[in-house]
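1st attempt posting a full record on here, be nice pls
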Amino acid sequence: MQFKYPELLYALFVLIIPILVHLFQLQRYTKVPFTNVQLLKNIERETRKSARLKKWLVLVTRMLALACIIIAFAQPFTSEYTANEEIQTSIYIDNSLSMKAKGSNGELLREQINAFIENGTYENDNISFHANFYSFNQNSPAQLKESLISLGYQSYPVNFENELLRIQTQGNLHPKSRLVIISDFQAYQYAFSELLNSLENETLLMKTTPVRSNNISIDSVYTSDYSATNITINAIIESQTPTSEAISVTLYNGPAIYGKTSVELQNNTGIASFSIPTNQTFMGKLSVEDNSLAFDNDFYFTYTIPKTIEILNIGKNPDYLRKIFDQASFNFQTSSLNQVNYGELNDKQFIVLNEIEEFSNALVSQIRDFVVDGGHVLVIPAVNADRNSYNQLFETMGMGSMLPKETSTLKITDINFEHPIFNKVFDRNVDNFQYPTSNAHFVPSFGASTPILSFQNRASFINATSVESGQVYFVSSPLTGSDSNFTNSPLIVPVFYNMATQSHGIQEIQYKIATGTTIDVNTSIRQDEVLSLQNENLSFIPVQKISKNKVTLALNDQVQKSGFYNVIKGDASLKQIALNYSRKESKLDYVAVENLSINQNISITNSIENLLAKIDASYEINWLFKWFLAFSVLFLFFEMLILKYFKL
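the predicted structure (as tokens):
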């Protein structure tokens, strides 16, 4: 039992007064003379003992009546919480894309929101609503109701731990508050077991369950089989459960249908392949038909004609480089060390420092700035390379140093197949080709380099080092003369070709809608210029990092709908990109919430009605002052009966 005004209970000390009066104001028997004792025959005698008992009973009833009146004015009540506690219930509604799945009365998310509105819970000031990355406006019940109705789906994969932290930092979740989680509890999404069992709050879990557990989706798209005229687009189709039916896949180029195919799924997975031309821009959309989740039935991608890559070779001008870069996609230029136009370096994507004996300070400074701003450089040392000059270049970029030249003959035997340089070069790991050799090489001592090709003793022959936004490739041996026969190896073409093509940035055919997604745009802008992303319904300026020849855009949480977007600079469109929802939500695998209730603070409910009934019951206050007033009247009535009828 609790009291609204507990300070009034101090008045109970008043009960000492009648006790003191009773103890010190003792009545004595008085002798009354009678002339005729015969008059006493009809008087009922009252003994001294019965008189005392009667007085004690009267005293007790009076004290109980007074105590009940005092307690009634203190307003006693019963409740789950104390009178001074303001208990807040934070209701978290999962509005991730998986909540689009159909329940018995429509989409899972809409089912729960309609139940809240029908029960009028949005009018309770002690209840706050939260969704992914969002808390509801509670200025008025009407505004809150409107926010619930207009709540959309969150396109970004959700981290529940971050959401719980966000609710806590808003002050809505302290140890005496209640947390309600309404979700389908997808297995990928939450590490519930440890997280929830560590909470001190009372926690209610309500799991929503779709009527269908099967989902067919386009999981991902990739390219293969490059040629001068065509490229193959491959779409991985997945089904949640085994199916014997062929899945129809349609490819669109813009609004027009480009092709259709059927896919038989083996082990719930199949691949749909389409060939598209490489000499035109392609705005592709792949579609499947599925009655379960709809957000993953479409997959967008773009293919654009690659731009010419600007390559500058400084130093020796060997024929093998001209042969490798003698294609329309490259603009290969060469310059001697004394004729370098430093003003044109910023217009290049790939620079080859080809067997230069000694670098000038001006070139070292220019190369450093070029790499820091995102450029790619290939360093091939000269036979008589000045180590101090080379180390000045490397140390300026924070790479490390080049150790003295070694003259032992070594085979180049190890290929790092996982490196991006060899992406789609080999169908499988190869170990039976004729190994090139090196008769002399400089040993690199770089702190954070990655080997691309290595000698038989595991020392690096070609390695790559990231320097801020750029990349530096280092070849240990000179490639002309007798120090190495690597130029005769078939490896030189894919290695140097891919170095150049990746300097321009690998063409991404699609991007994922996620908080960590970045988009590289090969352009230069002034300090007062910005790039924006636009489509027919949305235009916004993303966070951007500016380099000399590149701008990196960060999506954060500004995009909520998949589709095609244009990168705009001023009034011109620089690039078209495709954005797709994450496929994490496509997996209809769920956590068994009954296994999460290890903590005694956690309970499970199966409907909004039961959930709200439990919440309302906890806020319910049972006032008891009427009972105490009734008891005070009852004790006064008992006193009257005792005074009138109590005779012994």
